Amino acid sequence: ADADARLDFEAFRRVVISCRFEARGRLRANLGFTDVEMSEFRTLFNEQASMDGMSGEDVSLPPASLQALFCKIAPTTQFSYEARELLKKAVSNNQDKSGGLTFRKLIEVMRMYQDLFEDELSAGTPYVKETLGFSGCEVQEFLDIFLEYLRKGVDQMTAEDMNTLYFLGRQEVPHPLDYKQEVRQLTQAQAMQLRTNMAWQQETLGAAGSVRKFVNLAKKLREIEVTVLDNEIAAAQS
Predict the structure, then answer these.
(1) Could you tell me if residue 53 is left (phi over 0), alpha (psi between -120 and 50 degrees) or otherwise beta?
(2) Residues 125, 210: contact at Cβ < 8 Å?
(3) Is residue 138 within 8 Å of 119, Cβ to Cβ?
(4) pLDDT > 70? residue 16
(5) 150, 131, 141, 102: which is closest to 212 by C-alpha?
(6) In degrees rounded to 5, what are phi and psi of residue 74?
(7) Listed residue (205, 211, 221, 218) closest to 127, CA to CA
(8) Nearest partner of 66 among 103, 32, 118, judged by Cα
(9) Residue of 95 and 39 predicted with greater confidence
(10) What is the pLDDT of residues 19-62, one digit of tens each?
C-alpha cells in the first residue's frame, strides 16, 4: 500500500511538473500574457481588421486603425498624456515602414507598454512612501488602485476602490458628529461623492497619469472630511 501511495504521488508530481512547464512555455510564447488576455487581444485585432476589410494571419493594421484599436485595449491613453507617451515609445519600436502593426507586433507593443508602466510604478514607490507614509504592503495596494484608475477611469471606480484609497494606512477617521467614535468605512453615497470629487480634481488639474500625480490627487481626496462629503451629498439632493 505504501509503495502504491509513493507511485501515485510520483505520478502526480510528474503531472504537476509537466503542467508547469507547459504553462511556462505558453507564457513565454505569449510574452507573459495569459491565454485569456491573448484571446481578448486577438478578438479585438480581428474585429478591427474586419471593419477595415482585411483578413489573414499576416495582416498589418495601418496607423488610423491602430488608433481605434488602442482606444479599446489601452483606454488610459485617451485621457492620460503620460500613458500616450509610453504607448508612442512602444509603437515606434515595433511598427513597420508604413507605420502598421501585425498581431504579433501588437503583442510586443503591449508587452513593452506594460513593462514601461511597471518601471514607472517602481520609480514612483519612494514618493508614495515619503508623501503618504505607507508601508511596503500599503504601497503595493495603493499602486493597485492607481492601475485600476488607469484601466477603468474615474467613472468606473467602485465604492471599494474609493474606500481603499481613503482609508489605506489609517484604518479609521474621526466620526463627523461624535469624535469619540471612528468611521471605518464610507457609505455607498459617501464613496460615490468622493469619486465625484476625484472627477472634479481631474477636470481641474488633468488626469493623474503618473504615480506622482496620482499621489497628489489621493492626498487631496484623503484630506476631505466625512462631514464635508455629507454636506456635498445633501447639497446635491436639495
Answers:
(1) left
(2) no
(3) no
(4) no
(5) 131
(6) -140, 65
(7) 211
(8) 103
(9) 39
(10) 554 545 555 567 788 888 899 999 999 999 999 888 777 889 99
